[in-house]
Amino acid sequence: MSDKLEVENVNHPEHITRVDAVKYAAAKMALLAILSGQEQGLTQTEMMAAIKVQIDQTLFPNGAKSGWWMKTVQLDLEAKGQIIRIIGKNPCAGHWHEFGAQTRDLTLGANPFLTAGNKNKDFYRDARTQHPL
To answer: How confident is the model at residue 97 (pLDDT cuts 50, 70, 90)?
Structure first.
């Protein structure tokens, strides 16, 4: 039996889910590698595409189920403040802050889907990355 890990969901702060610890760790490592150095952030669509090739192929052959794991890790890391969702219109690369994008502290229980609109207009980045906002 594999070890389990409790994960949070920024959209449902009271809800805790238990998932496979090894697969979670692999997806987390891949997602943080993808977001590392991405000052302007990546859309969910870009993250989904990138994780298919970045994730451990022995655990996720041909990226199978990597999208589900990417989203699970993304929501958990947002809840823990380790990645940040940048809410705003789809920016041009390097100029996203000129379009009025703002960061939101998602650890306060705000539901970003109520104000964010289309998921492809939101960008995500590693919370440790410096940015001009």
So the answer is: very low
- Say how many C-beta atoms besides its own lie within 10 A of residue 47's C-beta: 25
Cα–Cα distance list, 102 to 37, 42, 71, 126 (Å): 19, 14, 21, 15
The 8-class DSSP code of residue 91 comes to P
- Asked if pLDDT for residue 51 goes beyond 80, the answer is yes
Q: Which helix (H) or strand (E) holds 23?
A: helix 21-35
Q: Which long-range contacts (CB under 8 A, 24 or more apart) does 52-57 make?
A: 54/30, 55/26, 55/27, 55/30, 56/26, 56/29, 56/30
Burial class (CB in 10 A: 0-12, 13-18, 19+), 59: middle
> Strand runs (DSSP E) across 4-63, as ranges?
4-7, 17-20, 42-43
48: three-class secondary structure by DSSP: helix
